[in-house]
Specification:
The complex is a heterotrimer.
Chain A lengths: L1 H6 L26 E4 L5 E4 L5 E3 L7 H6 L8 H7 L2 H16 L6 E6 L1 H11 L3 H15 L3 E4 H29 L4 H6 L9 H8 L10 E2 L4 H10 L13 H17 L6 E7 L3 H6 L5 E2 L4 E2 L3 E4 H10 L25 E2 L8 H14 L13 E4 L5 E8 L2 E10 H13 L7 E5 L20 H13 L2 E2 L6 H9 L7 H7 L18
Parallel strand pairs in A: 4-5, 4-7, 6-15, 7-10, 11-16, 14-15
Antiparallel strand pairs in A: 1-2, 2-3, 8-9, 12-13, 13-14
Helix pairs in contact in A: 5-6, 5-16, 7-11, 7-14
Chain B lengths: L23 H4 L9 H8 L22 E4 L4 E6 L9 H15 L5 E6 L7 H8 L2 H7 L3 H11 L11
Parallel strand pairs in B: 2-3
Antiparallel strand pairs in B: 1-2
Helix pairs in contact in B: 3-4, 3-6
Chain C lengths: L2 E10 L5 E6 L6 E5 L4 E6 L5 E7 L7 E6 L5 E6 L4 E6 L6 E7 L6 E6 L5 E6 L4 E6 L5 E7 L6 E6 L6 E5 L4 E6 L4 E7 L6 E6 L5 E6 L4 E7 L15 E8 L7 E6 L6 E5 L4 E11 L2 E14 L8 E6 L8 E6 L3 E9 L1
Antiparallel strand pairs in C: 1-28, 2-3, 3-4, 4-5, 6-7, 7-8, 8-9, 10-11, 11-12, 12-13, 14-15, 15-16, 16-17, 18-19, 19-20, 20-21, 22-23, 23-24, 24-25, 26-27, 27-28
Classes of the chains: A alpha/beta, B alpha+beta, C mainly beta.
Chain lengths: 513, 164, 345
């Protein structure tokens, strides 16, 4: 376990010991028993007669973890045990038994992130398309019914994020006009709020309702969300309310697909294959749990690395594997080629939102952010901070930025707190280099440096053609067929979510010092 | 109240060791006591457990035999026994003992507080933390924690004369 | 000839434990800080007469654990248990010090601050196991350049190399780490293992080729930096210099060592700790074929027991310049700052 934890590229190391108080059941009522620890750290209760009973270790659930401010980090050790390939194997076994018993089996759906696919492709020297077809074969031969990709749901995420941005930008403008300050002066004001009085100014500043908070901060990175909820409650109103690609896929599978197949959501078992351990945490959020059906939108998340472990366990050789055609909820061209969205390998949020809002807000078309066409790009102090602005006559109309990694998140949080952020939108990711370098991704062979490896995976990711989400016919059709139009109430429940500041620990017995 | 770490602790009869008889001379304020293990035990035996209305002596957490005092060299070492080996209260109990002694002993004493060998899963970690004065100092600036410590110490003055 | 330490002044004013002292780069001012949440600045009229000229307070809500001057002596940085880093500046000569920035970022107790020689970088560390590197911008605008999280425990102290932009950090995880910058970020270039408990304090010699560390394991260790293809044949990897322990001094301090200071003027090393003592060490010299060379041996040349009565000595600092290079300042749990003079008779 420690090996896995050490290799994580997450931005905060897991805390050493969980301090959440838990209940321990004693096995006997005999008060003269003694407790002893053996060499391996197991403990036993020894009765007066010398009988040893092994005591059960206390267990902590993911929900406990999310609700606790004891440690800032996601407790990866909990994640790894709660959502593991063992769980998937169990479901598969139960299904086989159900068929024998003549009972109905669960529908099993696997959704693969394009970043994971790129990691497999680079590691095994295959094209992303071959990887997609071979993973489809692999999972289906195990008994999985559908294999999708989250590039597909990412298009919903992009469209919805862009619409949200335009909405909020307009409300912000309106608010500024009514209150006599131009947006520009508000966003770029130079008077630093100083020390002692920050708390009172914070309070007034953050009373503003979230629909006029700019910049909007991207929401698809669960590590960042978890950190913000646990330590920077004031920043939550700025975070985009659009669900991540993983969770929108969850809505599609547990709502649309369930009704299409005529099954209850809890009769579908949905597995995400992701680049990041924190995606497990995201899947466990109560916001994505249906009380009615007692089921999660995504039941289990496995990382790229955990899938490779499954290959080994199943004696599966991806380099010599058969292939199977792709299922419908995979972003492909009519000719069956894989497609992606333009922009960064962290999802292309910044690029799409900027292109969309340039058109919607200023009537500017024809810009291509990925090719740096029609925008001004400035690399920051380090490669993980980039500033991209849309200008007209030398004056900035929109200022966007991408901030990856903990150090850049720090500066960003401080700037927002002091009202010094000049940006309208920031693509925030907890990992340096973004999602392509997620903690769950495959590692390079010894000979290659991490930097070169990330470049290679990035290139693989970008080796497939891009298509604007606005041209994804399947997605556009689902907007009307499934959601009932772009402004329907169902859009809100299926595509958007909310955040909750975690209260600081008040149980003094659990204070870590 | 959250769930207890150790819901059913073993309770021991308070020790039969006689309590110190304080002489008239000793009661005078300027009297510089020589400190012995009985005195140290008396100072800490009636500290309350953070979770139970019981004293450390009643829970056998502190015992006279596990206290060593070298008055000449102003050195004291104390070993305590957590009620269960994974007890997450161990550092808190240790902290209470430390604070009690910080407040009651002449400042010339250097005190080491340790978990008794083999009685706690993370013995070394607990010991290291309890004997790091910076960690202790910072802990005592945390009001939540200080409140609990003070609560535990509110019975410490009873020096073993606990009536149930 | 014997070498002895004499107390020459006693600076009273703090109302609680004093954690740290720091001489300004010229030695004209001594700053001290502690549990009473204040920084006090002291100047001497004569060798024995000292006055407290400034009390810096209000910013920190909890203990001020450490204080450091920037290289031009115009600013002070403070690290506090309230998790904040304070930056203070004197408004005008002889005037008050104003808090010009507070740096948020550490999750809990901040424990040490250090300014790089250039004055453009500030390093901080704390119980959250992290080391932060900040860039000092214009107009007191500090930007976080890196958050280094490779220590597995509480980081007790950070100290910049006296010449280069190389940082050392000492931790409760019993290791010292050396940090350097590559094109885009900082990385750990070496981990110094050998101490058996928390390392509380580190200091470089004036060349930055040697490092001394003081630990809860009651020893001082001396480390030397070996470059790739060094004459001694010490193996280095990844083309990085390798730090090796060249000498361990045990049996001197009886309890935890809280502070070490390596004089940049005369090369003597001072240490102090929980055994109430201050001790002075010197590198032994030997003559090989007519020329004097430094050996890897160190010896104790002076000590004071009960330097602050019966309580711990938390910090020791050599005077920084030639003028009074044999002066030392110490800070104690008794709330007092003392100035000592090393004399040879």
């Amino acid at each position: 376990m420690s090996v896995i934890l050490k290799d994580l590229n997450d931005y905060i190391a897991p805390s050493q010991a969980c301090i959440k108080p838990v209940e321990v059941k004693k096995t006997s009522t005999d008060n003269n028993n003694v407790i002893k620890i053996d060499n391996s750290g197991e403990y036993y209760e020894v009765s007066q007669e010398g009988v040893e009973t092994k005591l059960q270790p206390a267990s902590i659930t993911l929900e406990d973890c999310l609700a606790c401010s004891g440690c800032i980090t996601s407790a990866e050790s909990v994640l790894i045990t709660m959502q593991s390939q063992e769980e998937l194997y169990n479901i598969l076994r139960n299904n086989k038994q159900a068929i024998i018993d003549g009972k109905s089996e669960k529908i099993i759906v696997v959704s693969i992130a394009p970043q994971s696919r790129a990691s497999f492709a680079t590691k095994f020297g295959l094209s992303p398309l071959k990887v997609a077809k071979r993973l489809t074969y692999f999972f289906k031969s195990l008994g999985v019914h559908y294999v999708f990709d989250t590039s597909f749901s990412q298009d919903f995420s992009l469209l919805e994020s862009a619409r949200e941005f335009v909405e909020r930008y307009r409300k912000f403008q309106e608010f500024q006009e009514n209150h006599g300050t131009s947006s520009e002066s508000k966003l770029t004001k130079n008077n630093r709020i100083k020390r002692e009085n920050t708390s009172s100014e914070d309070a007034t500043q953050h009373k503003r309702s979230s629909d006029i908070c700019l910049p909007i901060l991207a929401s698809s990175c669960p590590g960042w969300i978890c950190y913000a909820e646990k330590t920077h409650g004031f920043v939550l109103p700025y975070i985009s309310k659009t669900k991540s690609p993983q969770q929108i896929m969850g809505s599609i599978v547990k709502d649309y697909l369930a009704s299409k197949l005529g099954v209850k959501p809890n009769n579908i078992y949905h597995v995400g294959v992701m680049m990041c351990y924190d995606k497990k945490l995201e899947a466990s959020r109560l916001d994505f749990f249906s009380e009615e059906y007692q089921t999660r939108d995504v039941d289990c998340v496995l990382t790229t690395g955990e899938i490779v472990k499954m290959f080994e366990e199943q004696n599966f050789n991806i380099n010599e594997s058969s292939e199977m055609p792709l299922d419908s909820f995979v972003k492909t061209s009519q000719e069956g080629q894989l497609l992606r969205s333009s922009g960064s390998a962290s999802g292309g949020f910044l690029e799409f939102i900027l292109e969309y809002s340039a058109r919607e807000l200023f009537g500017i078309t024809g810009i291509d952010v990925e090719k740096e066409h029609g925008v001004v790009v400035k690399i920051g102090r380090n490669k993980d901070f980039k500033e991209i602005s849309l200008e007209a006559d030398g004056k900035p109309l929109l200022k966007f930025a991408s901030a990856y990694g903990f150090r850049n998140i720090q500066n960003l949080v401080r700037k927002i707190k002091s009202g010094n952020s000049p940006y309208h939108y920031i693509e925030v990711m907890a990992c340096p280099s973004g999602c392509i370098n997620g903690g769950g991704q495959l590692k390079p062979n010894e000979s290659l440096s991490i930097k070169d490896w990330i470049n290679e995976v990035n290139n693989t990711y970008r080796s497939i053609d891009s298509l604007s989400p606005e041209k994804n016919e399947t997605v556009l059709n689902l907007y009307s067929e499934w959601l009932g139009g772009k402004d329907s109430p169902k859009c809100k429940t299926m595509l958007r979510t909310q955040y909750h500041a975690v209260e600081t620990l008040t149980n003094p017995l659990a204070v870590k010092w | 109240m959250p769930e207890l770490i150790n819901a059913n602790p073993t309770i021991y009869t308070p020790s039969k060791v006689s309590h110190r008889i304080i002489t008239e001379k000793e009661e005078q304020e300027d009297f510089e006591d020589t400190i012995d293990s009985q005195e140290v035990f008396d100072l800490i035996r009636s500290i309350s457990d953070p979770e139970h209305p019981l004293t450390l002596e009643e829970l056998n957490v502190t015992q006279l035999d596990h206290i060593k005092v070298d008055d000449t060299n102003a050195y004291i070492s104390i070993e305590f026994t957590p009620t269960i080996p994974h007890c997450s209260m161990a550092t808190l109990i240790g902290l209470c003992i430390r604070v009690r002694l910080l407040r009651s002993l002449p400042e010339r004493f250097k005190v080491d507080i340790m978990v008794r060998k083999g009685t706690h899963q993370s013995e070394q970690a607990v010991n290291k933390q309890l004997n790091d004065k910076e960690r202790v100092a910072a802990a005592l600036e945390n009001n939540h924690l200080l409140e609990v410590v003070n609560q535990c110490l509110s019975t410490a003055h009873k020096r073993g004369n606990v009536s149930r | 000839m014997t070498t002895r330490l004499y107390q020459i002044a006693e600076l009273k004013g703090h109302t609680d434990r004093v954690w740290s002292v720091a001489w300004s780069p010229t030695g004209n001012v001594l700053a001290s800080c502690g549990s009473d949440k204040t920084v006090r600045l002291w100047v001497s009229n004569s060798d024995t007469e000292w006055i407290c000229t400034n009390v810096l307070e209000g910013t920190h809500k909890r203990t001020i654990r450490n204080v450091a001057w920037n290289p031009d002596g115009r600013q002070l940085a403070t690290a506090s248990f309230d998790s904040l880093i304070g930056v203070w500046e004197q408004e005008e000569e002889g005037g008050d010090y104003e808090s010009v920035a507070t740096l948020e970022g550490h999750e809990n107790e901040a424990k040490s601050v250090s300014w790089a020689k250039s004055g453009t970088l500030l390093a901080t560390c704390g119980r959250d196991k992290s080391v932060w590197i900040w860039e000092v911008g214009t107009d007191n605008d500090f930007e976080c350049l890196s958050v280094l999280q490779e220590h597995t425990q509480d980081v007790k102290m950070v100290m910049w190399h006296p010449i280069k932009e190389i940082l050392a950090s000492a931790s409760y995880d019993d290791t010292i780490k050396i940090w350097k910058e590559d094109e885009d970020d900082w990385y750990c270039s070496d981990t110094l293992e050998g101490h058996e408990s928390t390392i509380w304090s580190i200091d470089f010699d004036k060349t930055g080729e040697y490092l001394v560390s003081g630990s809860d394991d009651k020893t001082l260790k001396f480390w030397r930096c070996y470059r790739p293809d060094n004459r001694e044949g010490i193996i280095t990897d990844r083309n990085e210099p390798k730090w090796k322990c060249i000498c361990t001094m045990s049996g001197y301090h009886q309890r935890c060592i809280y502070s070490v200071s390596w004089s940049k003027v005369h090369g003597r090393i001072a240490s102090c700790g929980g055994d109430n003592t201050v001790r002075i060490f010197e590198q032994e010299e030997s003559t090989v074929s007519g020329s004097t060379i430094d050996t890897t041996n160190f010896s104790m040349i002076a000590s004071v027991t009960s330097a602050h009565g019966v309580v711990d000595v938390n910090c020791v600092q050599w005077y920084p310049t030639e003028k009074h290079s044999n002066w030392l300042a110490t800070a104690g749990d008794d709330g007092i700052v003392r100035i000592w003079q090393l004399t040879e008779e």
